[in-house]
Amino acid sequence: MRPPGPQEGEGNPEPISLEGSGQDEGSGTSGGKRRSLRRAWPWIPVVLYLALIFHLSSLPDPLPELTIRLWDKGIHFAEYGSLGGLLLFALRSSGVAWRRALLLAIAGASLYGASDELHQAFVTGRSSDVRDWVADTIGGAVGAGLVAGALRLVGARASIHPAGGGG
Questions:
Q1: What phi-psi label fits residue 154: left (phi over 0), alpha (psi between -120 and 50 degrees) or beta?
Q2: Is 96 part of any domain?
């Protein structure tokens, strides 16, 4: 018997199941803890990535060998594209509907980019630039869009069943 929780078709994706075979793993309380952990795990990479961005923004010249070879706005685009993708995945894994997840991921990446630029204004050797924030926002939108497209494609392929039986 399946423990109570979101049912299929309710827009609540659960890509990885941490559930066992049912009731034999303990009381209902531990089942609730498992469901909480299952919903929390996609947010762990988001939190770690936000911490990495903050750390790098706190340095006067982070990754100098990279920044002399690549266009600054391209680095911002890629950095926040990754954040947008991570946010979209975490939001969808938490059961947020597609459109809302996409908008929240873009807004989240953009807001974090704005706060990052504000943070850099107070770091010796760094400066705040609205063009960096624009690159962050565009990157976040593209990254979230790419992950949304990939997740929808994977979901569509997973739902295709061969017509007829054996041959």
A1: alpha
A2: yes
